[in-house]
Amino acid sequence: MPRTISIKESFGTNISSKQLAEQVLTAIHKLLPEYPITIDFKNVTGLTTYCASLIFGTLYDELGGDLFYQKIIITNATSSIKIVIHEGIVGYLEKKPISE
What we know:
By secondary structure, this protein is of the alpha/beta class. It has one domain. The chain has five helices and five strands. It has a three-stranded parallel sheet. A two-stranded parallel sheet has the order 2-4. Helix 2 runs parallel beside helix 3, helix 3 (49-63) crosses helix 4 and helix 3 (49-63) packs across helix 5 (79-95). The chain is globular. The mean pLDDT is 93.
């Protein structure tokens, strides 16, 4: 059964600091890997690429692409927030050293 984290209710409408991003990531880690997690962005107006990278890039790297999309369900995100999340993941992966 998916568990839901409401970004607005738990962290506010603008995720723009490293501290907030780390808090979001910690909240998600507490529920993983047992449950799929719905991350509700209803009424969230801001998410920086840096924070998206810290949250979603880290999760994508830890889980791998297939499991990330099975376990992390993003709802009520504006198209701008979705783009920032995508850019955050891509940016994280581009900066990650290639393992030999």
